[in-house]
Amino acid sequence: xxxxxxxxxxxxxxxxxxxxxxxxxxxxxxxxxxxxxxxxxxxxxxxxxxxxxxxxxxxxxxxxxxxxxxxxxxxxxxxxxxxxxxxxxxxxxxxxxxxxxxxxxxxxxxxxxxxxxxxxxxxxxxxxxxxxxxxxxxxxxxxxxxxxxxxxxxxxxxxxxxxxxxxxxxxxxxxxxxxxxxxxxxxxxxxxxxxxxxxxxxxxxxxxxxxxxxxxxxxxxxxxxxxxxxxxxxxxxxxx
Length: 240
Description:
Blueprint: H1 3-18, H2 29-88, H3 93-98, H4 108-122, H5 126-131, H6 138-194, H7 197-202, H8 204-215
Helix pairs in contact: 1-2, 1-6, 1-8, 2-4, 2-6, 4-6, 6-8
């Protein structure tokens, strides 16, 4: 939620509080209905904003964890295994390709897949690798690190998709809440124009409309303003 959306939601919330106690007369039925719809929309916006905030926090923590795990698996496992393995299997093109290390800017999922591919390629040659100086248990550590990084990367991707979806839902619901507030404002103005006699005795309509006008501060909708078309000047007739 950006600052503009936060201000708009807060303004609509103040307007709904102003309309909390309305006269129980038939003339106010439309206003009560619109108020209830706006209150339900505010509850939906609150739920979406909470989901967006939790997804943003989860994405921030997960991104740091993913970046650290990506660097760790690259330095501790991928580069040492690839350097020694390519020297041992330099005459086998498939093994050299399987022992390739992703670029440093590659995603964490790419590093995890590379680690699992290395572990799968080296599994049939495990005894040969131990005989050539690879320490015991390196293959298990490589596979475990790859599986853990893949699970962490998928978790971060889930938080990212939740954040995108909640941001889109928030934008749509804020726009619909603005439209409801505009309709409600027009309905309140219509009540003041009709002004039945019992409204004048109590001054209810004027008081509520004035409080509503002070509470609602929605601002103008964003967007590029339309350009006015310049009037075409008639060219003078050619002189003969």
